[in-house]
Hints:
With 85 residues, the chain is an alpha/beta fold.
Amino acid sequence: MSFLLPATVTQQTATQLELEGLRNLSGLANIDCSQLKDFDSTVLAVLLAWRKKLQENKQSLFIEHAPEKLKVLAKVYGVSALLGI
Length: 85
């Protein structure tokens, strides 16, 4: 089962999204980004927080359907390898 990111992830929505994901940690192994359209770099902070929590539980994070903008942001911030995108 995948955790579906919403279409919009910005500073205004990131904290709530991060908490929602942490409450559903078992569903975080696969993150589906297919609906992600309007976002900024805060989405990277959310994904990294989830990755850290999963690693603490000996689990991995897999990102599916990452839009090109997300790949570019991850590369610019130097977290592409950490997020597998």
